[in-house]
Amino acid sequence: MQATLDTIVKKHRESGGNIISLLQDTQEAFGYVPKEAVLFFADELGIAPSRFYGVATFYAQFRLKPSGKHRVTACCGTACHVRGAERILNSIKRELHLGEEEDTTPDNQFTVEKVACLGFCSFAPVVLINGAVHGKTTADPVLKEIKALRKK
Amino acid sequence: MENATVIRVCMGPAGIAAGGKKVIEAFSGALARAGVPAEVKERCSSHQVGCVGLCARDVLVEVHADGAKTVYQYVKPDMVPRIVQEHLVDGAPVKEWLVDEAYDAFYRKQIKIVLSDCGRIDPEEISAYQAVGGYEAAREVLHSWYPVEVIEEIKLSGLRGRGGAGFPTGLKWELGRKAPGEIKYLVCNADEGDPGAFMDRAVIEGNPHSVIEGMIIGAYALCAHEGYVYIRAEYPLAVERLHRALRQAREQGFLGRKIFGSDFDFDIKVKLGAGAFVCGEETALIASIEGQRGMPRPKPPFPVNRGLWQRPTVINNVETLANIPYIIRQGCGWYAAYGTEKSRGTKVFALTGKIKNPGLIEVPMGITLGEIIHEIGGGIESGKPLKAVQTGGPSGGCIPAGMLDLKMDYESLAKVGSIVGSGGMIVLDEDDCMVNIAKYFIQFTQEESCGKCVPCRVGTKRLLEILTRITTGHGREDDIARLETLSAGIRNTSLCGLGQTAPNPILSTIKYFREEYEAHIRDKKCPAKVCKALLTYSIDEQICKACGACLKACPSGAITGAKKTPHRIDPAKCIRCGACFDVCKFKSVMKE
Fold first, then answer.
1. Using one digit for the tens of pLDDT, what is the confidence trace for B388-408?
2. Does residue A48 belong to any structural domain of this protein?
3. Of B55 and B317, the one with more pLDDT
4. Residue (of B381, B395, B360) closest to B494 by Cα position
5. For all residues of chain B together, what is the average pLDDT?
6. What ipTM goes with this model?
7. Model-level pTM?
8. Rounded distance between C-alpha atoms, residue B170 and residue B345, angstroms
9. Which residue from A129, A143, B336, B385 has the highest number of Cβ atoms inside 10 Å of its Cβ?
10. Taking chain A, what is the end-to-end CA distance rounded to the nearest angstrom?
11. Cβ-based burial of A131 (10 A; exposed 0-12, middle 13-18, buried ≥19)
């Protein structure tokens, strides 16, 4: 981990430490923003950790906890919304026994996220499973795919 | 090589979703296997083209052979060998897979400027863009135009900002040019956060060089030497293609020092947005490029005087910039001939929702809503009556079905309480609840409110609470009036556009669909049967075949019954998820 963090700091030191770019590179490397990374950057660059926290919690992109092995992303843009995105999202969460505020299963196998719009509006409703696009979908095929992933 | 056989496979966002890549592979394989005559084979090329528009029929494949163009729809990899054999080997297109009349109707009323080369050229090759005249406008401007001439040309074209507000682009450039300061910036706003809009993504994926050329021309007019593209990280393909295009432009000497052999230096950096709708607001976008929380600040000073790193900064939307090279090449008069008096040119709309032919369309400003819905869109998918069209996303409003004669331009839309916005156009039918739609948008703006100013932070929260109570059967008699008062306050006192326009979805739905609000509040009914808490599910025992499908599907164990015994729903246990309604083949489940 340390080697990666060193590289990231080195890359951004010259440009004055753009917090968003630092966090983006960190998340790209680890899948989330670990607390240790932020404390290290804060120390190295003389920027208060609270400023990193402020930026990280402002933008939807950043995760402060590791995400599950499989990522299920339900698009909840307007076109998907009017075609039943919410019902699909609820079915997925029910299937994985996730509460209203939870996004990752306790065994860290699945992370379920909702996004504002993926831009696949002609194919609404859309669900991404590990990055693969499932368009014009319903709850059924999505749940089947999730069950298949769970068995693996 | 006019008889060269070219196969174009739609690889736009939806094309990839529908398996465009697999179709390309299938074509490469089938062409080789079928022993298509060698000279044809050599001339065959499968371009990975950007969006050709009618995404709902993906994968679309254009076959250009013997000087004729044939288009296939819904192409799957297993259909490819037959197309190759019958069409390319035997010379007879596979009739039953060709596009139908609706496909032609989709294009007939469209006028393509920004999208004219999207889907026609390979977005990953700069030479393809150059072959259709690309970068000629920038070259000419840099060598033989004065910056003020560029500004004058754009002013005369009547082009207005396509990101939402519709500010005249030429005027913005003029203000930027006149702003005092040695260092200036040009920023391309590609943070398309409006849910239901995807034109910026399509343009960058389908023709990234047009945006770059637009930026070069703009930078020259402003005398800016550094540009930024602020693009959503959620668009990985667009980001990749943009980077590739920038690299190619640099290699050609179109970006960097002394571009096009002139004395002008200009280069472009890419900044990835991190997912915040408010960053579409100019001052918030600037804060975000600087690496801060994307919070707006009061204006003035306007970014054009004090923007990025306190320097004069002009921010233009993707579609606006992509128009520039075409306007320079063909002249301001040509562009201004399209559209209406105050809204010139064309606009790209993302036509989605309950429409038969969803997709990206480019139409002259001033076309009527009816022409878009019925002629281009092919009408409502379900055959049910049209209820409303939502335009402008969370800052826009709903236009009722009775206004099909409404012209699509900045002024006409503002008059009826909506906006052109970035161009999202979501078609709603009878099955959509207008209170639910308003609640959907308020939930969105409430989540995306940056929290800096009280009216927006607290006001949207209160609006959402009221709408939630209305849609769950706890609405109070004076709630409509309360929504209106609160909305007026938020609109008048919020710091930035996000807050100022947040109440629009509520105000326009109250204006045109007040009776739906009243039904929710007084009768505790949702006329469109959408609001869960106001529904009851039951099974018609006369129709029920006791097949057990609903029993299995019910996640809460609310359904009882056995073989040959009609099933029943226990309303106390029912969570109103609608699973039984969806699985019943005999339509015995009733929703009220």
1. 999 999 999 999 999 999 999
2. yes
3. B317
4. B395
5. 91
6. 0.94
7. 0.91
8. 14
9. A129
10. 29
11. exposed
Q: Are residues A54 and A106 in the same domain?
A: no
Residue B100 near residue B187 (C-beta atoms within 8 A): no
Q: Where in chain B is the domain with CATH 1.20.1440.230?
A: 434-522
Q: Is the pLDDT of residue A109 over 90?
A: yes
Q: What single letter denotes the amino acid at residue B117?
A: D
Number of domains into which chain A is organized: 2
Average pLDDT over residues B265-272: 97
The answer to whether residue A63 is domain-embedded is no
Question: pLDDT band at residue A108, thresholds of 50, 70 and 90?
Answer: very high
Put simply, the answer to whether B393 touches A126 (Cβ < 8 Å) is no
**Cβ within 8 Å, pair A18-B291:** yes
DSSP-derived letter for residue B475 is: -
Best residue of B11, B59, B198 to probe chain A, by most A CBs closer than 10 Å: B198
Does residue A53 belong to any structural domain of this protein? yes
Query: Minimum mean pLDDT among B81-95, B258-272, B416-430, B506-520: which range?
Result: B81-95
Fold observed for domain B346-429: Ubiquitin-like (UB roll) (3.10.20)
Assigned CATH topology for domain B536-591: Alpha-Beta Plaits (3.30.70)
Separation between Cα atoms, residue B98 and residue B87, nearest integer Å: 11
Instruction: Please report, for residues A93, B10, B47, B119, B347, the alpha-carbon distance to residue B13 in angstroms, rounded to integers and kept in the order given.
Output: 27, 9, 15, 11, 20
Please enumerate in sequence order all residues whose Cβ is within 8 A of that of B300, keeping only pairs 6 or more positions apart, or say none: none
Q: Taking CB atoms and an 8 Å cutoff, what residues of chain A touch B582? A: 138-139
Give domain status of residue A99, yes or no.
Answer: yes
Which tokens is B172 given?
A: 């913005």
Task: Tally A–B CB contacts below 8 A.
Answer: 132
3-state secondary structure of B458: helix
CB nearest to A135's CB, from B18, B294, B444: B18
Concatenating the DSSP letter of every residue in B483-543 gives HHHHHHHHHHH-SSHHHHHTTHHHHHHHHHHHHHHHHHHHS---TTS--GGG--EEE-TTT
Both tokens assigned to B394: 């969370």
Task: Say if residue A131 is in the same domain as residue A91.
Answer: yes
Task: State whether A53 and A78 are in the same domain.
Answer: no
Q: Cβ of B393 and A78 within 8 Å?
A: yes
User: How much of chain B exceeds pLDDT 90, in percent?
Assistant: 72
B434-522 — its CATH code? 1.20.1440.230
Q: Is B424's CB within 8 Å of A135's CB?
A: no
Q: How confident is the model at residue B110 (pLDDT cuts 50, 70, 90)?
A: very high
- What is the predicted pLDDT for the residue at B193? 84
CB contact under 8 A, B16 and A133: yes
Beta-carbon separation of A60 and B426 below 8 A: no
Per-residue pLDDT reduced to its tens digit, B525-563: 999 999 999 999 999 999 999 999 999 889 889 999 888
| A79 with B196: Cβ contact below 8 A | yes
Give B197→chain A minimum CA distance, Å: 6
Q: Which CATH class is domain B6-99?
A: alpha beta
CATH at residue A140: 3.40.30.10
Taking the Cβ of residue A8 and every Cβ of chain B, the question of whether any pair is shorter than 8 Å is answered with: no
pLDDT for the residue B408 = 96
Are residues A78 and A125 part of one domain?
Answer: yes
Fold held by B126-336: Rossmann fold (3.40.50)
The pLDDT tens digits for B10-53 are 765 555 555 777 888 888 888 888 776 533 333 334 444 545 55
Domain interval for residue A7 = 2-58
